[in-house]
Amino acid sequence: MTTGISEGALFDTVLIANRGEIACRIIATCRRLGIRTVAVYSDADRNARHVRLADQAVHIGPSAARESYLRADKLLDAARRTGAQAIHPGYGFLSENAAFAQACADAGVVFIGPKPSSIQAMGDKREAKALMQAAGVPVTPGYHGDNQDPAFLQQQADDIRYPVLIKASAGGGGKGMRLVEKREDFAAALLSCQREAESAFGDARVLIERYIVRPRHVEMQVFGDSHGNVVHLFERDCSVQRRHQKVLEEAPAPELSGAQREAMAQAAVAAARAVDYIGAGTIEFIVGEGGDFHFMEMNTRLQVEHPVTELVTGIDLVEWQLRAAAGQALPLRQDQIHHHGHAIEARLYAEDALKGFLPSTGTLQVMQFPEASAHVRIDTGVERGDAISPWYDPMIAKLIVWDEDRPRALQRLRQTIDAVRVVGVTTNAVFLGRLARQADFSAARLDTGLVAREIDTLLAPLPEADEAAWMLAALGFWAQSQSAKDDATSNPSPSGRGAGVKVASPWTIADGWRLDTHAARFIELSANGQHRRIAVREDHDGLRIGFDGEAASPVSFQWTAPTLTAALDGVRRNVDVLVQGAQVVLYRGEDRFVFEHVDPLHRHAGAEAHAGAVIAPMPGRIVELLAPVGTPITKGTPLLVMEAMKMEHTLQAPHDGVVKAFLAKQGDLVADGAVLVDFVEGDAESAA
């Protein structure tokens, strides 16, 4: 198979060997350049957004990535069948797989990325460290050798001195990485790291490095072409991380001197030249408190956080990738590349941060973001009605903002996060909003331990709803239910209050109707263990609202879903109220309140069916059973390990008690809500 293009000409057709947000991102640039795109999809992604956006789409297998997106043979067959001249791997999956890059070359298809030899050189962290040392790039002290005997690695960690990092040799994205602060924790951390590395990368080898206290993570974007040109596009600070996975990224890195930036840039360019690099790459450095920096790794692909570089430089990195892969020289010299302003990116995930960041699956019943502008960019791979499945990374969107300087960009970030409206899955928006307001982050006092130090504050329970919040939630629920009546009309009440609300026919009202007037309709809500009954009465004088048993007060309001503007006790408030099924979510500024509507006819239908049981919080695979059966254990004791969405999650004992039985075994695939452990509170005798 041949490419059918002349050197330097852009491709006619590109196959995107990826999914989700990055596939949609690549399609956008290809469309702008007049390049046809081919999407690939698994069973789970049959109706995904990237499939809908592409010019063609090819089914490549079952939902499991190892049977679809990780199958090089199926990807190359799809390229052959559609006449694609090049394959863009995106990030993740096969983007840093040297064997896949070589298979593309052998098949006559251009791999939009570096040469296989470059990927190979930088793909093994141990070999990359040695290569960087030879190139004069500073590296972190540690053990990068071949001996993988656990006792030997334990001794190396002892010699390096704790704390140390165990890192998967073939790893990336925070997977296969463990921080070990004391000797007695090393063996268990090593086993867990190797297991996760084998699952994620098919390679259990690790290296050991000294953990630099209060480090910053600063990375340099580099680009090379086949004409010998290598440039940098300045740096990004990715220090705000949780479990070694980036949460917020920004460009340029704050509090970095010109001398530090120049030294880091020169080291990054030297690193890229050392492997004859072509295309987009990132040299990641760890920066100590004194400003000294050390090479960590090179990501031989486009980074998730590349949009912040695009916003400060004005350069489309995907376009540059396409041009470099087509044999063109880089469009700009180093002295022509400049940066302006400040950009910050936040990763919005379907996960419940307040419950240990458990992934959340479901259908996106509501998904609303601020409109795109020169200051706000939303990169997403999903739309309203799409599903977040357990098969892949739970990212919903990247929220990216830009402004003239960091303080103004930070304010835009806060406003953007506050404006996110997602119902159907739980998101980390509250966590992101708190992080964007955290004192050290706001003051640019950054290091990779920031989130861990502030975790209790960042994950504090949601604020208790005040009386106004209860009333506004009830009013929003009432307004939505009124407007949803099948035979509603648009007549406002005689007083003009409630303009825009559809008043239902009395024959469709299930409660509260009286001849010539209305009795109160009672709306019962619950939140955080509290229950309130709110009376809403509509009559000829307008609307009145109050708590059950208390005097009702007049309220004037306007409802244009989801925005509710209401005057309670003379105070006018603008809030958003989203109602999906029994869930009522009230957004008020940076605060979010989640209520459940209690149907009095089904008050007891939700009683717990498995009191004392430990339930699967998400679909996944059982990796390991940890607790002994029949032996008393304390609250918080690890019971079992699940793998879901490419990460391991440890489920703990909900209280002191005894494991009576495990209802799933190692290797089992379990559904969301499945009973995993028969757990009883008490001692061993109570379990008999």
TrEMBL record:
Cofactor(s), names only, from the UniProt record: biotin
Residues of the Biotin carboxylation domain: 10-456
Domain ATP-grasp: 129-326
InterPro entries, A to Z: ATP-grasp, BC-like_N, Biotin_BS, Biotin_carboxylase_complex, Biotin_carboxylation_dom, Biotin_COase_C, Biotin_lipoyl, CPAse_ATP-bd
Domain Lipoyl-binding: 602-680
Superkingdom to which the source organism belongs: Bacteria
Keyword terms of this UniProt record: ATP-binding, Biotin, Ligase, Nucleotide-binding
Protein name per Swiss-Prot or TrEMBL: Acetyl/propionyl/methylcrotonyl-CoA carboxylase subunit alpha
